[in-house]
Amino acid sequence: MPPKVDPNEIRIINIKVFGGEGGPASTLAPKLGPLGLNPKQVGDKIIAEGGKWKGIRVMIKLKCQNRNADVTVEPTSSALLIRELGNYERDRKKTKNVKHNGNLTLEQIKKVALLVEDKSLAKEFVGTFKCVLGTAQSLGATVDGQPVKQIIQKINSGELKISK
User: Fold this and answer.
1) 3-state DSSP percent of the chain in helix, strand and coil, to 5
2) What 3-state DSSP class applies to 109?
3) pLDDT: is 92 or 22 the higher one?
């Protein structure tokens, strides 16, 4: 028989779900069962917490202690950029392979970079800014009507100064 779980121990579980939808019970049950948590109740908490991110895939952090789960949404830079682009709510069962092409401003990129700065491994803010620009490029977005690569070249050459 497996060892008993210490109820005072804090367990952190990360899962990626679509906002406004609960995690599939088949993936939640094996993780939450040994902790004495009901997957249905945790799924309802996930739905309630992720409602603001409807249609976008976000990371959910479950902090489990004493047979209770605290749910927090930790959006990635791509989720934040998709939200900035707007027009992200869709029925994912009907609409497939959506391109998130659009135009972002440098201020929107800076706002996202400030939000993800603590998770970034870059030494300086400019590095985090470039990481977010790379994510915008992979989404297919442009920045101020220019391709993202041109903006990165301007930053590298010193034409464009980035500060918090």
Assistant:
1) 45, 20, 40
2) helix
3) 22
